[in-house]
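Case study 2.
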Amino acid sequence: MTHKKVWTLAAGLLLATSGGLNAQTPAPQATNPVATPVPAANPADVQSVDAIIAALYDVISGPVGQKRDWNRMRSLFIPHARMMPTGQRPNGPVAIRLLEVNDYIATSGAFLEANGFREREIARKTEQFGHIVHVWSTYEGRTETDSTVLRGINSIQLMNDGTRWWVVSIYWEHERPDMPLPAQYLPAARP
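Prediction:
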């Protein structure tokens, strides 16, 4: 797989944004042309750090032809949350894309459905202070139409508002031959 194909695939893959923080906070006016109302989250998806991380990976994964539950995805994120794929372009410079959930859905949704895509967490490092959590989530993913395995690291920022967990941002980069994943972000060796 060429760097260009890997960049295109990796830059289009991962997670998004939502509606109001709680019942007292009105949802902001949407400026995205594909904006839709944000549903309430399934309490099981947002009750813990483990639950929201599992929901993030689950919502984008599925076989060819399976529609993704984009309302579920929207329900995981604070309003205007960011999804930020970054990496080296085929011509050399490093670039970043700043996306909100509806941007991600508009740019990646059809691809995920047409090609089938499954992504899973293979290792995690978590740090917490008060209501904020930073998760280094090492992922592995592949489409059903290409046997190439993509790996990389999602830097996920989470917040707990006292009732549930929210995704604030996801910033990620995929592994390249000249930039392998560091050992501390890989699954621990089993004895």
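DSSP finds five helices and six strands in the chain.
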